[in-house]
């Protein structure tokens, strides 16, 4: 399976990196990562070009990595700086070095063409630095599932009523229409459920006892970032859609890292506009999120198992699949763009285009 390589992916939470050499597998490639003496994270191809021993099985010497087999040593740019027993350093003795950006306690890595890596393209939200919001990192959920299926699940409000009936959904939303917009940077799917019983999450956390107005907005950014804006407000307040901050509002963020074609890591966290500074509330929310995401895990892994078996007929598509279908199309377009080298981006005057 091909992966989109010219994109920023989450390599891990900042807390996952220290001075030790650690192997991470991202887009099927092994990467050795560690913190340099200045605190920045370095990322190198985890394979010595000599006999292919993983560099993660070697050792650090300052800010260089020495192979544990024959001592070839590489700096953080991937350049070989020492070959024991000889003075010349072959040009072919190098390893790939990957661009890294660390932001909001998240480490991002670029696995494609390094010259195309723009730190300004790293995902961000104003709520990360807004004092009216609290950020809290959750877990790294390992899924035996293709990342495409994981991503599609995260732009699908319709599944919530059936997969999460006691946590993030209930039967009140089963027949409420889902709205979808596919023209912007993100694919967006959303719906409002007015004057209904609160879901389990907000019964436990929001303290709602009467009926509420609640919402789910799903934003999927290609290739692997999803934001779910959900919340509730007392039904009698009848808040407009653009005034969601008046209610208890949560952003659940999902950063998907494809490991292999059938293994995806979903690092999830949340931003909230209530219970600021309350770690007890954050821990309670983590418990509820873990229960809900375990429900997703069971579904996604069962789907992956069936996809791996011979198919007797083509799968069907129904009305709720508009967002996932557009997502797959965008992924295909990105892959096609990476398969070719566009040398006609600045046409000569011999070709005049009118479209």
TrEMBL record:
Keyword GTP-binding recorded: no
**Entry-linked InterPro entries:** Cholesterol_7-desaturase, Rieske_2Fe-2S, Rieske_2Fe-2S_sf, VanA_C_cat
The protein's UniProt keywords, in alphabetical order, are: 2Fe-2S, Dioxygenase, Iron, Iron-sulfur, Metal-binding, Oxidoreductase
Q: What CDD domains does the annotation carry? A: RHO_alpha_C_DMO-like (cd08878)
Keyword Iron belongs to the record: yes
Q: Which residues form the Rieske domain?
A: 8-109
- What PROSITE patterns is this protein classified in? RIESKE (PS51296)
Pfam families (UniProt xref) = Rieske (PF00355), VanA_C (PF19112)
Spell out the molecular function terms from Gene Ontology: 2 iron, 2 sulfur cluster binding; dioxygenase activity; metal ion binding
The protein's name: Aromatic ring-hydroxylating dioxygenase subunit alpha
Species whose genome carries this gene: Paroceanicella profunda
């Amino acid at each position: 399976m091909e992966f989109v390589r010219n994109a920023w992916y989450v390599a891990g939470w900042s807390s996952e990196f220290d001075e030790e050499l650690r192997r991470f597998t991202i887009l099927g490639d092994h990467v050795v990562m560690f913190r340099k003496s200045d605190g920045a994270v370095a990322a190198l191809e985890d394979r010595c070009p000599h006999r292919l021993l993983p560099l993660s099985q070697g050792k650090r010497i300052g800010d260089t990595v020495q192979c544990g087999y024959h001592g070839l040593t590489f700096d953080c740019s991937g350049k070989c700086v020492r070959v024991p027993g000889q003075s010349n350093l072959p040009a072919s003795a190098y390893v790939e070095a990957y661009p890294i950006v660390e932001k909001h306690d998240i480490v991002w890595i670029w696995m494609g063409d390094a010259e195309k890596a723009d730190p300004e393209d790293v995902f961000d939200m104003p709520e990360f630095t807004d004092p009216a919001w609290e950020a809290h990192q959750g877990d790294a959920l390992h899924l035996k599932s293709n990342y495409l299926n994981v991503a599609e699940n995260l732009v699908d409000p319709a599944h919530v009523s059936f997969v999460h009936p006691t946590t993030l959904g209930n039967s009140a939303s089963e027949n409420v229409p889902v709205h979808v917009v596919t023209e912007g940077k993100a694919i967006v799917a959303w719906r409002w459920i007015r004057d209904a019983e609160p879901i389990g999450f907000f019964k436990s956390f929001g303290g709602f006892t009467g009926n509420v107005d609640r919402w789910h907005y799903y934003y999927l950014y290609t290739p692997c970032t999803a934001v779910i804006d959900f919340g509730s407000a007392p039904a009698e307040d009848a808040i407009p859609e653009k005034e969601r901050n008046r209610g208890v509002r949560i952003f659940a963020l999902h950063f998907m890292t494809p490991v292999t074609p059938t293994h995806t890591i979903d690092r999830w966290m949340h931003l909230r506009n209530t219970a600021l500074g309350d770690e007890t509330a954050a821990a309670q929310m983590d418990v509820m999120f873990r229960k809900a995401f375990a429900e997703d895990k069971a579904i996604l892994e069962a789907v992956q198992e069936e996809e791996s078996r011979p198919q007797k007929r083509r799968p069907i598509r129904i009305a709720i699949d508009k967002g996932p279908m557009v997502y797959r199309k965008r992924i295909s377009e990105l892959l096609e763009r990476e398969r070719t080298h566009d040398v006609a981006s600045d046409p000569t005057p011999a070709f005049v285009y009118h479209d």
